[in-house]
Amino acid sequence: MSAPSNHPRVIFFQVRDNGTKLKKIVETAHLHFEKKEPFLILVEDSKAQDFVDELLWKLPQTSFFPHIATDEETKEWVAISKSKKNVNSAKAVFNLCSTPLLIDSPFKMIYEFEDLTAPNKKNLSSLRFDAYKQAGFSFEAR
User: Fold this and answer.
1) What is the pLDDT, as a whole number, of residue 106?
2) Residue stretches of the chain with pLDDT short of 50
3) pLDDT for 6-45, tens place per residue?
């Protein structure tokens, strides 16, 4: 399925446990950081923002990479935000919110979880997938 060029590509990571989720968040952020590409992580609330902030300081254990938890504009390569704004002009975003990211934006890539850790999370993943599909986004599962 091909999407119009104005829609980002959505990549769904299939995860069956919380450890894999944490690993995917860190790996994806690190990948974009190493390429010197601004990367945004969107979260639901302050608790999730603090959790992801701590996670990125702790992992990978061999090193860390600079990032910021903020809802304000920033020049940092990696930002964690609870606002639905592109605070660091990122082209790639990891959406950790329960709702799909269907806002007009400059994003080229949206990362999501196909979360199989619990039935309610699987249902939310399916709803997001269906919303992206209905909106005409292209997608892939990994």
Assistant:
1) 84
2) 1-4
3) 778 999 999 999 999 999 999 999 999 999 999 999 999 9
- Using CA atoms, how far residue 118 sits from 3, 26, 105, in Å, is 30, 22, 30
Dihedral sign from CA coordinates of 100, 28, 47, 66: negative
Q: Are 78 and 41 in contact (CB under 8 A)?
A: yes
Provide the β-strand partners of residue 106: none
Architecture of domain 9-141: 3-Layer(aba) Sandwich (3.40)
- Give me the DSSP letters along 8-36: PEEEEEEESSHHHHHHHHHHHHHHHHHTT
Element (H, E) at 50: helix 46-58
Closest CA to 25 of 115, 105, 99, 126: 115
**Residue 5 per-residue DSSP state:** T
Sign of torsion, CA 34 38 43 46? positive
Place of tokens 């902030």: 53
Residues 105 and 87: beta-carbon distance below 8 Å: no
Residues 6 or more apart whose CB falls under 8 angstroms from that of 45 comprise: 82
Going from N- to C-terminal start, the domains of the chain cover 9-141
